[in-house]
Amino acid sequence: MVMAGQPLPDLLAELGLRPGSVVVERNGVALIPSELTGIRLADGDTLEIVRAVAGG
């Protein structure tokens, strides 16, 4: 469950994701990796999390 004020990196950890392995969009704005540590979630935030997958 996401709670207001929760740091974004904590949510990613709960989901089993490393910040360097995903691209996160918050409220329609893509975040660069260095921004993730300073983000705290707010009520109504919309997140899109995309994990890069390599293979062939």
Automatic annotation (TrEMBL):
<dbReference type="Pfam" id="PF02597">
    <property type="entry name" value="ThiS"/>
</dbReference>
<protein>
    <submittedName>
        <fullName>Thiamine biosynthesis protein ThiS</fullName>
    </submittedName>
</protein>
<dbReference type="InterPro" id="IPR012675">
    <property type="entry name" value="Beta-grasp_dom_sf"/>
</dbReference>
<dbReference type="InterPro" id="IPR010035">
    <property type="entry name" value="Thi_S"/>
</dbReference>
<dbReference type="InterPro" id="IPR016155">
    <property type="entry name" value="Mopterin_synth/thiamin_S_b"/>
</dbReference>
<dbReference type="InterPro" id="IPR003749">
    <property type="entry name" value="ThiS/MoaD-like"/>
</dbReference>
